[in-house]
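Subject: for your reference before the review

Hello V.,

The reviewers asked for a structural picture of the protein, and I figured it would be easier to keep everything in one thread rather than splitting it across files. Below is the amino acid sequence we used in the manuscript, unchanged from the supplementary table.
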Amino acid sequence: MISVTHFAAGGEQSGDFAERARTALGVLAQRPGFLRGSLGRSTDGPGEWVLITEWENVGSYRRALGAYEVKLHAAPLLGEALDLPSSFEPLLEIAPGGAAITRASDREPAGDD
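And here is what came back from the structure prediction:
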């Protein structure tokens, strides 16, 4: 499961946004099921950021959000996110060299063939 959370961190909050995001990402990284995460800033708008995390599955992500440390250190930051879809299921991955891995969607009903 991939979470892509968008932020518009302009004005007063922009100065400490990167540090608060680093703290949030560090806390999330300690949760079971966390695979990797990154923080990125837009090259077109310096106040636009994304926090991207990857998880083993939706359950591990949801359990992580319920953990005390996450509620304390990450939830306040996540509460500032833009109201956009943020959770995605990976359906295609291509590694360097072109090897492709495809997955069926959890949202599509299983065939009764």
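For the response letter, the relevant points are probably these. The mean pLDDT is 91. The chain has one domain: 2-87.

Happy to draft the paragraph if you're swamped.

O.
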